[in-house]
Amino acid sequence: MSAAAEWARQQALLTAIRSAGSSPGLPVAAVALRGHGAGQPADRAAGLRAYRANAQAIAERALCAAYPVLTQLVGEEAMAALARDLWREHPPTRGDLAWFGAELPAQLTATPELTDVPYLADVARLEWAVHRAHTAADPPDGAPDLQALASGDAEALGVRFVDGCAYITSAWPVLTIWRVHQAPAGNEPDLGPAREALAAGQGEVAWIGRRGHRVDVVALTPAECAFNHELLAGRALGPALASVSTRHPEFSFEHWLLRALREGWLAGLQPLNPKT
Question: Taking the complete model, does pTM exceed 0.90, yes or no?
């Protein structure tokens, strides 16, 4: 079989596997399964079902691994259904299934049946950021070099955060919900704080960072969130500080810097275009 024919066969196989819930056309199945010992139509259909079942099982496991809190909130049966829908609508684009599931928060937002639990999508956004942080590169050893703060121009200095840093802003207490579901395996989570925060309509900002091999998830004040947002967007320290101080006069750069160093957010400084 030529390389082009093999590529076409593999694409047909993937198309047939992804069409979960629909009847695979025998012409497609025949092309897809050719060369896999499936001679008769019944054998081809059985082989296709086996491929599809295996793919769906892998998708379900990958999704539950990336979203353990969401799995606790909605249950394994619902997560299995979400995985099937996601696999069909947003199939993996790379071999590493650790990347499968990025579109789940948007899918939750667009699901009419979940309008009575609107916080689920933001919990999923937080979990995906935590999941990606776990696979980020380890932070550099040693303290970041900040000498440029004393000798450099803040108008032309940017901040490099360690890989995996991100923040989630939500109208819901997503950090509290996430935290109460971090109970050790076999222990029932204490849902009281989450219920109280939901009843109070409490919004939260969660910061996801790396400290060595550990992923930290902590709360941010609105001012800290605004400053981190400016810096993550690539804005220089001077303009970022001026912008945030206008909106949050209580913001203290010194306090922010001490916290950033204590919690390991910073990888270092970098020169930027003075107009940034």
Answer: no
